[in-house]
Write a structure and sequence with these properties.
The protein has 164 residues and is an all-alpha fold. The chain is built from six helices and no strands. The longest helix is centred in the N-terminal third of the chain and has 30 residues. It is flat, with a radius of gyration of 21 Å.
Length: 164
């Protein structure tokens, strides 16, 4: 079963993306702008479908490669065990981010969230003081870019929080 996990997940998400794309046509258009309220759901559905197809293709390639070279007992012993701590920390961090978005505002909460997420996702060799500076700079640049895109490009007001 574990050999087919990526194939199954990719297939399920491809079907979900197709259903989501089809459902986006039920969104009523306002007619005010060229990019109506159905634009973002269609983009998300398209990207999800594309990533699902890539996952399926990689899985099929890995399965073909595994059939050519069956795994030996020593290969199975060297397989990495899953690391659940970063997954749980990410889920907790996302929940905190959503809860603090309104009171803190988009800019402050997103900088904090991205900085902490970069630290959770980084390997142990990349957690020094130099990398902390990179993480902070990346969080600030990404937050400012996203804020600028939404406020000026899409004309969407994001939560101001403490800067109101």
């Amino acid at each position: 079963m574990s050999r087919y996990t990526d194939l199954i997940v990719g297939s399920v998400f491809a079907v979900i993306a197709l259903i989501y794309f089809g459902m986006s046509f039920n969104i009523q258009e306002a007619g005010v702008t060229q990019m109506g309220p159905a634009f973002v759901p269609r983009v998300i559905a398209g990207m999800t479908f594309l990533l699902s197809i890539i996952l399926i293709a990689n899985s099929v390639g890995a399965l073909k490669h595994a059939e050519i070279q069956p795994a030996g007992a020593e290969d199975r012993a060297n397989e990495e065990k899953p690391h659940y701590v970063p997954v749980v920390l990410t889920a907790v961090l996302l929940l905190a981010y959503v809860m603090l978005l309104e009171p803190m505002g988009f800019i402050a909460s997103t900088i904090v969230y991205l900085f902490l997420q970069f630290n959770i996702s980084a390997p142990k060799t990349r957690k020094g003081l130099k990398h902390q500076g990179y993480f902070l700079a990346g969080a600030v640049v990404a937050t400012v870019a996203i804020n600028t895109l939404f406020v000026t490009g899409f004309n969407v007001m994001l939560p101001q929080g403490i800067w109101e």
